[in-house]
Amino acid sequence: NVALVGNPNCGKTSLFNIASGSHEHVGNYSGVTVDAKEGYFDFQGYHFRIVDLPGTYSLSAYSPEEIYVRRHIINETPDIIINVVDSSNLERNLYLTTQLIDMNVRMVIALNMYDELEASGNTLDYVKLSQLFGVPMLPTVSRSGKGIEQLFHVIINIYEGGDFLDHKGRMRSEILSDLRSWHQEYVPDHDFGSHKEEIEQPRGFYRHIHINHGPELERSIEEVKRVIS
């Protein structure tokens, strides 16, 4: 039971179409994704139910889309959430990601439209970003299907293991292995800094403190500023 969650125009419906074999119209205007769309497919011996939820920028429960997505996550309790993000616009897209993390859901992040990020001359150390967020991230190009199979391999690993973090808060070794394998395949000539060192001397992947405690930290900092000013 998998749910697709992401901003409008992040390629979410394209990913849904290629995974489920559906032919939903792609776009972001009235009537395209006003309700959830549901599809089914089989992969590696698993029968998947995949739900394409309405595009939303947050889960603050102000707009109809926000309310719908939030209620689906709470009431339907998907086994895994695929947070689809536009790789070329991470700053805007990752706000929703932090809200999903706050809900303590099991999830994997599809760094979609990765080809557009590369076409702009940029690179992204997504293994390091996975480390900071404590969530597996994989590049995908939903228009062509690139990365979709690897994405569902990771989803199966998370489903089988019950979580992507172990009891010490470290990313499980098999998930980390999938990320590194895909990283080496996607960008074989780029080490992104310290990954070779990490393989030689493994370290746990811990979620960055600001992801879980950001609001409290910000409030504490403001209170300290107020007291000493």
Widest sheet: strand ordering: 2-3-1-4-5-6
CATH fold category name: Rossmann fold
> What is the CATH class name?
Alpha Beta
Gross CATH architecture: 3-Layer(aba) Sandwich
CATH homology-level superfamily: P-loop containing nucleotide triphosphate hydrolases
The rough form would be described as globular
Coarse structural class: alpha/beta
- Proportion of beta-strand residues: 15-25%
Q: Kindly state the number of beta strands.
A: 6
* Count of the separate structural domains: 1
Order of helices and strands: EHEEHEHEHHEHHHH
Helix content: 40-55%
Average pLDDT, to the nearest integer?
77
Could you tell me the radius of gyration in angstroms? Answer: 18 Å
Q: Which helices and strands, and how do they pair?
A:
Layout: E1 2-6, H1 12-20, E2 37-43, E3 46-52, H2 64-76, E4 80-86, H3 90-102, E5 107-112, H4 114-119, H5 126-133, E6 137-139, H6 148-161, H7 173-186, H8 195-200, H9 209-228
Parallel strand pairs: 1-3, 1-4, 4-5, 5-6
Antiparallel strand pairs: 2-3
